[in-house]
Amino acid sequence: MRRRSPTNVSSELMEKGGGKNQHNRLCLLASLSAFFWILLLYFHFVVLAGSTVDKSVKLDPTPLNPESKTPAFVADNRLPDNPLKSSPSGSTSETIPSNATPSSTETTPSKTTSTSSQKIEKFPFTRALRTVENKSDPCGGRYIYVHDLPSRFNEDMLKECRSLSLWTNMCKFTTNAGMGPPLENVEGVFSNTGWYATNQFAVDVIFSNRMKQYECLTNDSSVAAAIFVPFYAGFDIARYLWGHNVSRRDAASLDLVDWLMKRPEWGIMQGRDHFLVAGRITWDFRRLTDEESDWGNKLLFLPAAKNMSMLVVESSPWNANDFGIPYPTYFHPAKDADVFTWQDRMRKLERRWLFSFAGAPRPDNPKSIRGQIIDQCKKSKVGKLLECDFGESKCHSPSSIMQMFQSSLFCLQPQGDSYTRRSAFDSMLAGCIPVFFHPGSAYTQYTWHLPKNYTTYSVFIPEDDIRKRNVSIEERLGQISPEQVKIMRDNVINLIPSLIYADPRSKLETLKDAFDVAAQAVIDKVTRLRKNMIEGRTEYDNFVEENSWKYALLDEGQREVGGHEWDPFFSKPKDGNADSGGSSAEAAKNSWKNERRGQS
């Protein structure tokens, strides 16, 4: 394009051009050249720059305004092409198309920001996400709101504690914030403080009381990263498992869901930011039919409950709305020093037994390998057995159990009546390396609390090696070098803080216990879900709920599962009911039968 000077400058040049010398002409050319470059730079930095916008997905880092209900966000122009699909829980969220934000060549910065803000404001949880941007707030992104439930959902059950079990007086086990009566250190097996006769089904009370000590509780649900429902689900079903019809077994669960759905907090994510705890195995809450003979209640099959996250001591490998947390042990330290002292003691112990097992055979279960394990223990000179059949008192003595674990290098943990056992956590507390025979006993259960690389802290011997090949456990464990044994034992001992529940009446200073790990995992889960909803994507591609156990085993960045070496361990029962049908329901029933036998 030809440069044009102002009209008056051009005419003056024509009138005086002939009278100027060469020097003046050079000055004029220099001036015109400078003017040209000024125009060029102005056009580049002012005009063109005006149509360029920042398209990052960061939340607006401006300080949180407590009065603001719809905070502004920076424009998001990087949404994926695929719309948001149904979540693992089965609910769907509003689709955000990838072309929701207009092109930068057609939109000014103010219009782009306005459009993006209107889009983001559709999500009522954005104020909660913004708290993490406040770097001066140590609770940013970690707030938990606790529902103030009517007492019939929790405290009233404790007042009627004698009804919580047909065979066990649960009243003594609900004392001391759920830890039970203190254990005396007569034989020197325990520490002098922090040890209690804790019932394995007491997590409902322990977790709820630990929540009261959580440092980032809030009364403002709009800033909450997660919402806790203090319903004693395990205690509720324990009252009615035997001799009650399905209506009675379901009553409290239906009442709870009805109460929650009427709360404004529920509408934020239709319950997908809610979580609750049940100190029982998942099969007690997965009744498929309304037949009176079917086991348990249907809490985890209620449409609303499918959106919530339920923390149980044993989860289902085929369902997406429950997550495994550790069984409670006997140790509930009140301060960090108690944990450090115990860990140091476990490292220094002399362990005379190569392996040990505490348990009873399962003659009614043809698939159980317990009988073969017991036989191997009896025949081995380096194996120790504590038989628990017929209510043997030593097997139900915390002191006897912990003493055996403390004197063993490896502790055998075959399946119990279901996949998992409390014994696994008692043994690791004693610094004993667990030996698992089914991946569902730990590796796919406690993915929040145990390392993904299970070889660093445990030994895996497939059940068929014992059942069909009669592999010698003594020979298999004897092949592990002393140096490797020491490394594995140190790893187990280092895991202790995250596997125990601290005294709910106090708080550890720097260590994170099982409660802390679980609470943070729930927060991380909800936060990912919220961000994915804003970005219009799902966490996984082609999610298949039946393969739920596989997703937690994926490496970071992986979005789809395929075949796995453990597939044979998790094939569905032949009747096709992977929940309360067949083997799982029988496992739950057998668990109660053996609890009864233990009290005889």
Automatic annotation (TrEMBL):
Keyword Transmembrane listed: yes
Compositionally biased residues, Basic and acidic residues: 564-577
Keyword Magnesium: no
Signal peptide span: none
Biased composition (Polar residues): 1-11, 84-96
Biased composition annotated in UniProt, kind: Low complexity: 97-117
PANTHER family xref list: EXOSTOSIN HEPARAN SULFATE GLYCOSYLTRANSFERASE -RELATED (PTHR11062), XYLOGLUCAN GALACTOSYLTRANSFERASE MUR3 (PTHR11062:SF56)
GO (cellular component) term, any one: Golgi membrane
Organism: Populus tomentosa (Chinese white poplar)
Keyword terms: Glycosyltransferase, Golgi apparatus, Signal-anchor, Transferase, Transmembrane
Protein name: Exostosin GT47 domain-containing protein
Principal subcellular localisation of the protein: Golgi
Compartments in which it is found: Golgi apparatus membrane
Membrane topology per record: Single-pass type II membrane protein
Domain Exostosin GT47: 139-476
InterPro entries: Exostosin, Exostosin_GT47
Region (Disordered): 1-20, 61-119, 564-600
Any one Gene Ontology molecular-function term assigned to this protein's record: glycosyltransferase activity
Family of this protein: Belongs to the glycosyltransferase 47 family.
